[in-house]
C-alpha cells in the first residue's frame, strides 16, 4: 500500500479527527489552541482617556482655574465646568464636561491659573470604544495562544478560556543498534536520536507526549508495547523497524492487535517508509528509522497533521520562494525534499544545499532550517534558480 | 537624551556585553546557546554499512553460500571470502571482505544457496566517513540548541556541552491603574498586560527571568525596587511610569541609586519612550507603559539585544519583503513600525494593515505577526506597494 503524498496527507488528517474542548484558567493557557470565538467584554477604552499629559478643559477661554489632578488609576475631580481645568496624565480618564486636553508643554501655569492656547474639541482625547466596541472578535477558534495572543487575553480580562483538549501521544523507538549517550559507544552502533527529534519538535508545539521506551526488535515486545499503549494514548508514534518488514512479523502484529493498515509507504525521498494504521480510538504512525528520514516525514506530514489534531487552524509550515545560492541535485520523476540552509538577504530568502542529501546522513540538520520541495518535474537546480522551500525555522 | 534608532541599538548591545560560559549535561541543553565549536568525535558512519536489506558478497560469481545474518545491532559473521555471502539489514555493518550488497528482491535463494546478479564493487555500501570524518564542525559558538540541533547532539554522542550562562532578568511593572485579572474591573482602569507580554516573549527565547512585582508610582517604592533588584539581577526591565517623568522624580531616583542614564527616548513610533541606564554589573531598560509601545520596543530593540546578551549569534528577527494587501498610513519624516498581519501566498509574503496604529490600542496584537518598517522617506503605502517587515512569527 503506497500512497501518493496528497492521499497520505488526507488519510492522516482524516484518521486523527477533531479534538474535544475544555475550559481552563487563562494563566494555564500559554501554547494552547482557542476553541471559541473570543470577544471583548467591554468597550476599549471604556472611558474617555487622555492621550497626553496636560490640561483637560472646555475651549473658548484664555485662562483657566486648576481644579485638581487625575492620574491613570488616581482619582481626581470627576467633572469640570466653564473655566475650570484638571491636569490629566496620559491614560487617565478625562473629567466629564472637558472637550479637549492641551499638552502641558504648550501651557503656562502660575498660582493655579493656567493659560491654554486655543484648540478644537476632541483633541488629545481617546474616545470610548475607539479601539473597539464590546463584542468585537479578537481571536477565532483554532488560534494558538502564542506570545502575541497570550498577553491580549489578559488585556481583555479573560479569566477562563475554552481550548481544545490535547490528544495524548505515546512514543517508542525500535532497533537493536540503539545506544543511549550514557552507554559506552560500540563500533557500528548508533546513539538514540529519534527520541530527541520527536521530543524537540513536540516541545515546540506544546504537544502532550510520553516516551514509552526503546522496544527491541522481536514480536513479543512489539505486541506488548502496542497492547499497553493502545489503551493509554490517542496517537502512537514509533521510529524504525516496524514499518520496514525487517523481521517480517509486522503485519501479523497489526492483525493480533486489531489495527487496520491504511498505508505503508508514501512517494517521497528521503523516507518513503511511513505507516499509518488505526483501530478505534487510536492512530498509529510508524516512522522510518534513519533520523533524516524521520525528520523529513515529521516536517512534511506528521507535524502538520498533529497540529491539526490539536485544533490549530493554520497548521502547516509556510512554503516560501527561495533563490538557490548553490546547486542541489534531485532526480526527475520523484518528489524529493532536499535539506537546505535558508538565509534572508535584503528581504529575500536564499537557500544553500546542506551538502549531502543521503538518507543515512543526518548531521546537517544542526543547521538545516528549510526543505526544498523538488517535485516530479523539477529535478536538479543550479545556482540562481528559484525554488519553493518549507520554512521550518526562521 | 534622545537617541536615533541605530545609536540606541548600539548602546543597548554595548551595555549588555558578552555572557560567561558553563558546562552542562546535554539533556539539560534544549534552548541554550552553544559556547564552543562542536565537532564530531568519530567518523560517520564509523563502519561500512549496508544501504539496503540484501546480500553482502564479492562480485564475480553466480551463486553464493549463505553464511549468516547481520542486523543493525545484531552481530553476524564478521568476514566473508570467495563465494560466501551474509544477509545484511539496512544500517548493519557489512562484513570484512564483502565488496557490495545486492538487494534481496534482486536475488533468488534456495537451501542456503543464493543466486546474485552481477554488480560493481561499492554498490549499496555506505563508506566509512562518507557523511563526515572525525573532527568535522557541526555547530559553532552562538548557535541556539533548537529542535534541529538538540537531537544532533545526541546523534554525536555528546554528554556535556559548553553553553553561555543566562543573564538573570528582573521585571517590574508600574502604574496605579493596573489591575490583575482576578480583581473586579473598575471603570477607567486596565488589566496588567505588560507582565504577560514580557513573560511570553521571554519564554519563547528561554530567558531566565523573575517577576519582581507591581510597583506603585511613588518615590520610595521605586527606590526600594531598584535597590533590591540591582544586587539580584543582571538586567532590570520595567514598564510604564518610570521613563515618562510622570511624577518627575525619576532622574532623582537614578542618582540616588547610582545609575547613569544613557538615553531616555528613541526616534520611533509607536513607543518613543525607552530608557537605558547602567551601573556596574546591572543594566536597566525602562520600557513604555502602553502595551503596543512596549511590544514594539521589545521586538525592535530589546529582544535582539537580550538574545545577543544570551550569546546568540543570529540574534535579530528577519526582515522580509512583503506586498501590501491594504493601505497603511504613516508620516514621512519619522520612522514608524506599523502593525501588520503577514501571510504567505504562492511563496510570497503579503501584509495587511492591522486596522489601527494608535499607540493606545493593543488588541490587534492577537494576530499581528509582523511590523512594517516605514522609514523617514516612506510615508503611507497603498495596496500593491512593496515594503519591508520584521517577521515576528511565521
Total of helices of chain A? 6
**Greatest contact between two chains:** A-B, 95 and 95 residues
The poorly predicted ranges of chain A are none
Class from secondary-structure proportions of chain A: alpha/beta
- At CATH level 3, the topology of the largest domain in chain A is Molybdenum Cofactor Biosythetic Enzyme, Chain A
Average pLDDT, all residues of chain A: 94
> What's the number of domains of chain A?
4
Distance between the termini of chain A: 36 Å
Largest sheet of chain A, described in full? 7 strands, mixed
- Count the strands of chain A? 26
Radius of gyration of chain A: 30 Å
Tell me which CATH architecture of the largest domain in chain A applies here: 3-Layer(aba) Sandwich
Helix content of chain A: 10-25%
Strand order of the largest sheet of chain A: 1-19-20-21-18-14-17
Q: Given this structure, which CATH class of the largest domain in chain A is correct?
A: Alpha Beta
Beta strand % of chain A: 25-35%
State the oligomer: homodimer
Keywords (chains A, B): Magnesium, Metal-binding, Molybdenum, Molybdenum cofactor biosynthesis, Transferase
Cofactor (chains A, B): Mg(2+)
EC number (chains A, B): 2.10.1.1
Catalytic activity (chains A, B): adenylyl-molybdopterin + molybdate = Mo-molybdopterin + AMP + H(+)
Q: What does this protein look like?
A:
- Chains A, B: Keywords: Magnesium, Metal-binding, Molybdenum, Molybdenum cofactor biosynthesis, Transferase.
- Chains A, B: It catalyses: adenylyl-molybdopterin + molybdate = Mo-molybdopterin + AMP + H(+).
- Chains A, B: Residues 170-308 form the MoaB/Mog domain.
- The model of chain A has no long low-confidence stretch (mean pLDDT 94).
- In chain A, strand 19 (260-266) and strand 20 (273-279) form a beta hairpin.
- Chain A is built from six helices and 26 strands.
- Chain A has helices spanning 5-16, 149-155, 194-204, 219-230, 250-256, 291-309; strands at 2-3, 21-25, 38-39, 49-50, 54-57, 63-70, 84-88, 100-103, 108-110, 113-115, 125-126, 137-139, 160-164, 168-174, 178-179, 190-191, 208-215, 235-239, 260-266, 273-279, 282-287, 319-324, 336-345, 348-353, 370-374, 386-391.
- Chain A has 394 residues and is of the alpha/beta class.
- At the A-B interface, helix 2, strand 16, helix 3 and strand 22 of A face helix 2, strand 16, helix 3 and strand 22 of B.
Amino acid at each position: 500500500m503506497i500512497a501518493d503524498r496528497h492521499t497520505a496527507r488526507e488519510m492522516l488528517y482524516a484518521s486523527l479527527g477533531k479534538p474535544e474542548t475544555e475550559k481552563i484558567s487563562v494563566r494555564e493557557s500559554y501554547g494552547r489552541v482557542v476553541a471559541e470565538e473570543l470577544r471583548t467584554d467591554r468597550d476599549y477604552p471604556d472611558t474617555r482617556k487622555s492621550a497626553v499629559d496636560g490640561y483637560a478643559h472646555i475651549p473658548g477661554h484664555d485662562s483657566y482655574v486648576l481644579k485638581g489632578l487625575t492620574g491613570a488609576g488616581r482619582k481626581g475631580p470627576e467633572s469640570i465646568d466653564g473655566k475650570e481645568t484638571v491636569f490629566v496624565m496620559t491614560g487617565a480618564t478625562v473629567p466629564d464636561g472637558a472637550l479637549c486636553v492641551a499638552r502641558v508643554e504648550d501651557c503656562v501655569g502660575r498660582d493655579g491659573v493656567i493659560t491654554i492656547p486655543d484648540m478644537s474639541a476632541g483633541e488629545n482625547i481617546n474616545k470610548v470604544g475607539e479601539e473597539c466596541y464590546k463584542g468585537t472578535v479578537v481571536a477565532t477558534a483554532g488560534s494558538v495562544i502564542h506570545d502575541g495572543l497570550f498577553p491580549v487575553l489578559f488585556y481583555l480580562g479573560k479569566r477562563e478560556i475554552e481550548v481544545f483538549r490535547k490528544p495524548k501521544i505515546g512514543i517508542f523507538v525500535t532497533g537493536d543498534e540503539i545506544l543511549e549517550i550514557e552507554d559506552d559507544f560500540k563500533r557500528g552502533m548508533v546513539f538514540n536520536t529519534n527520541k530527541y527529534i520527536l521530543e524537540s519538535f513536540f516541545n515546540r508545539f506544546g504537544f502532550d507526549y510520553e516516551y514509552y521506551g526503546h522496544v527491541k526488535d522481536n514480536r513479543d515486545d512489539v505486541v506488548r508495547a502496542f497492547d499497553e499503549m493502545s489503551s493509554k494514548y490517542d496517537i502512537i508514534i514509533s521510529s524504525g523497524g516496524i514499518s520496514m518488514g525487517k523481521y517480517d512479523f509486522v503485519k501479523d502484529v497489526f492483525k493480533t492487535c486489531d489495527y487496520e493498515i491504511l498505508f505503508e509507504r508514501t512517494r517521497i525521498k528521503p523516507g518513503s517508509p511511513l505507516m499509518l494504521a488505526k483501530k478505534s480510538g487510536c492512530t498509529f504512525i510508524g516512522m522510518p528509522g534513519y533520523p533524516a528520514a524521520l525528520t523529513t516525514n515529521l516536517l512534511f506530514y506528521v507535524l502538520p497533521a498533529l497540529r491539526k489534531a490539536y485544533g490549530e487552524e493554520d497548521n502547516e509550515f509556510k512554503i516560501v520562494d527561495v533563490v538557490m545560492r548553490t546547486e542541489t541535485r534531485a532526480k526527475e520523476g520523484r518528489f524529493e525534499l532536499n535539506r537546505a540552509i535558508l538565509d534572508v538577504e535584503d528581504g529575500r530568502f536564499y537557500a544553500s544545499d546542506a551538502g549531502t542529501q543521503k538518507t543515512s546522513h543526518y548531521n546537517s540538520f544542526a543547521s538545516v532550517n528549510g526543505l526544498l520541495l523538488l517535485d516530479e518535474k523539477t529535478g536538479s537546480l543550479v545556482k540562481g534558480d528559484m525554488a519553493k522551500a518549507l520554512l521550518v525555522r526562521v
